[in-house]
Amino acid sequence: MKENEEIKQMLETVIVNQQKILKKLETGNEQQPLGDYVTETEARKLLSRKTTWFWQMRISGVLAFTKIGSRIYYARQDILQLLDRNKTKGTGIHPAFATR
């Protein structure tokens, strides 16, 4: 009987933990508090760039930013505009093989 009670308690714990995980997954899809802004850490992950690259973009005026304390934020729209400004149309031919 004691073994059955232990199993029952373990199953209840598993169910409670599963419900917590499901709740976190459901609320994880909500918009983040800053919505239109990302931290530099998030931007580095999105663009696969290093801190130095973002610093160069800031000091050259290419990418606007907001600094609060020691944290730097970028507007998502500014990052998208940067990507659009640097968009190129591929020719399908590597430049080394193109005839001039």
Describe this structure in words.
This protein has 100 residues and is mostly helical. It has 2 domains: 30 residues; 49 residues. Helix content is 53%, strand content 11%. It has 4 helices and 3 strands, in the order αβααββα. Strands 1-3-2 form a 3-stranded antiparallel beta sheet. β2 and β3 form a beta hairpin. The protein starts with a helix and ends in a 15-residue tail after the last helix.
Radius of gyration based on Cα positions: 24 Å
Number of strands: 3
Low-pLDDT segments: none
The 3D shape can be described as elongated
Mean of residue pLDDT values: 81
N-to-C series of helices and strands: HEHHEEH
Determine the structural class based on helices, strands and strand pairing: mainly alpha
Instruction: Estimate nothing, just give the exact number of structural domains.
Output: 2
Strand content: 5-15%
Helical residue percent?
40-55%
End-to-end Cα distance: 87 Å
Q: What count of helical segments does DSSP give?
A: 4
Largest sheet properties: 3 strands, antiparallel
Which strand order do you get reading across the main beta sheet? 1-3-2
